[in-house]
Amino acid sequence: MLIKKASAIRSSEITDSEIFSQRRTLLKAAAAAGVGAATVSGSAQALVRPEGKGKAISGLIQTPYGKGLQLTDYDDVTGYNNFYEFGTGKRDPAKNAHTLKPSPWTVRVEGECEAPGDIGMEEIFRLLPQEERIYRFRCVEAWSMVVPWVGFSLADLLKRFKPNSRARYVYFETLVDKQQMPGQRRQVLSWPYREALRIDEAMHPLTMLVTGVYGKELPNQNGAPLRLIVPWKYGFKSIKSIVKIRFVENLPETTWWKLAPKEYGFYANVNPQVDHPRWSQKHHRNIGEGLFAGKHKTELFNGYADEVADLYRGMDLKKFF
Amino acid sequence: MFDIGIHWQRWLLKIVIFIACLMPFLFLLDGALKDDLGANPIETVTHATGDWTLRLLLITLVMTPLRRLTGLAWPIKVRRMLGLFVFFYATLHFFTWGWLDQQLIVEDILADIVKRPYVTVGFLAWLLLLPLALTSNRWSMRKLGKRWSILHKVVYLIGVLGVLHFLWLVKADLLEPLIYGLLLVLLLAFRWKHAKQSEKKRLTERQGKLLSGL
Q1: Best exposed site among A1, A98, A145, B64 by fewest CB in 10 Å?
Q2: CB distance A291–B32 less than 8 Å?
């Protein structure tokens, strides 16, 4: 009989009780909201689905998020990306992102907080239990995927740096390095790529920092080693390869919003009632359904309205799009 | 070299160009049959047919200057076929959008044509190609006489609309549509310069005649 010695249990497998109880509440909330309607077919699908490539993430915790949703193929999730740091074509990132070195990697957390500092990826893996959550991913270009992300609630990381009362927004930056990111040799966007969330959006349990996909560490083209995922917002809000997180008091400028403010709002919440000036947002196409597939109706907040609509109560979503 | 006579050389050239122009379509057809058109096949087909419409349009517009610069006759002989391939790819592009993308929902199609400027100019360009394709035969040329060449000057406007269509749909990277735009401007500038020169020539000739008449 094999008995594990105490020392053989990795620290990542041990969850401190505070986080554990938080997660229980979160899971309960998710179940109550109907996010995780765990069906028999859903669990079966989770078992037979293809695994991702790359390094496995240890101590992966299954969650009911998105169980039963039909997953987008691994090859499409990792082969069809908008990541202008590696070229503007959808296939460019998968082709070019091998130049990125995701390890070692450090994220600087600064600004309006009590305990600013740097945190390395090893520490992130050590401190924060890695959960698998299946989310819908809706691009502003009217296509959509369903992705089994691995990561943790952004709030769990942010709390460690003790944001103060002036922290009204959380601002993010992607790496700038022309050697590692050849797409930055041209000023297609003004580098670094910048994004931001209101503090309550950032602290929302659905908002995720992602370290992996399909059970393995993130491929470079998906924003290795650490990216944001905000499932009720258009994909461009979900900034990739993050090196900086800053708590700020005033509304920060963000990349696409600044480039074309009439087309891309700061909020960028998925909303079928607010068209992009150049195309309708009422429908989307599911990636992987083929040449003759129809479109699908896009839902307000990408189907997460029960969880997040409260954040925008009383706001004119047509004005603050 | 084989001595196969000018007639057969022309035929051979036309067949080669015909096959070359058909290649992008055959690649798409092959990809569609093998289900190998990438994660977003409708986007792949839309972009490919759009790109080839613009590329062939520019190639068609190269033929006249090529003839004037080199004195060769064949560029004019293959111009019609190239032009018809522009129409072929533009039509594929239009139907990919209307059928595969918009699912033949007429109200959505009309709404987009009215509301989205890049769709408006793209649709307009395709509409303007119709009379050119219909009058590309010898019979129409004879029938329309001088008016035929005036009508077919619409191709310049189609080129401008085509480049605008591309320019207005990209999100941030303007490089590719600007390259198409620059090539179009060069080709139009050549024609403008040539038109001015022949105008001048005509004037001096007429002045010469007047003077000699005195």
Answers
A1: A1
A2: yes
B171, B174, B175, B176, best to mutate vs chain A, most A CBs in 10 Å: B171
Residue B206 maps to a domain: no
Q: Dig out the tokens for A115 from the structure.
A: 């305990």
Per-residue tokens: A219 = 């491929």
Residue A140 has pLDDT above 80, yes or no: yes
Q: Which residue of A has its CA nearest to B165?
A: A278
Looking at the 3D structure of chain B, how many domains does it have? 1
CA distance B76 to B73: 6
User: Is residue B156 included in any domain, yes or no?
Assistant: yes
Contact between B46 and B97 under an 8 Å Cβ cutoff? The reply is: yes
What is the CATH topology of the domain spanning A16-312? Sulfite Oxidase; Chain A, domain 2 (3.90.420)
ipTM for the complex shown: 0.82
| Residue pointed to by tokens 């299954």 | A62
Domain boundaries, position B133 = 5-188
Tokens encoding A308: 């997040």
A42 to A46, A132, A287: CA distances (angstroms)? 6, 14, 19
| CB neighbours of residue A89 within 10 Å | 15
User: Would you write out chain B's pLDDT as a tens digit for each of its 214 residues?
Assistant: 556 677 888 899 999 999 999 999 999 999 999 989 999 999 999 999 999 999 999 999 999 999 999 999 999 999 999 999 999 999 999 999 999 999 888 998 999 999 999 999 999 999 999 999 999 999 999 999 999 999 999 999 999 999 999 999 998 889 999 999 999 999 999 999 988 888 888 888 887 777 776 5
Is pLDDT above 90 for A275? yes
Contact at CB, B39 and A79, closer than 8 angstroms: yes
Residue A318: what residue type?
K
Nearest Cβ partner for B39 among A80, A292, A294: A80
How distant is the Cα of A63 from the closest Cα of chain B, in angstroms? Answer: 27
Cα B42 versus chain centre, distance: 23
In a domain, B196, yes or no: no
A95: left (phi over 0), alpha (psi -120 to 50) or beta: alpha
Looking at the domain assignment, is residue B56 inside a domain?
A: yes
Task: Using an 8 Å CB-CB cutoff, list chain A residues near B39.
Answer: 75-76, 79-80, 90, 287-288
pTM assigned to the model: 0.83
For residue B39, give the nearest of A76, A84, A141 by CB distance. A76
- Residue in A75, A279, A285 closest to B40 by CB: A285
How far off is chain B from A51, nearest CA to CA, in Å? 18
Q: Out of A88, A277, A288, name the one closest to residue B39 (CB).
A: A288
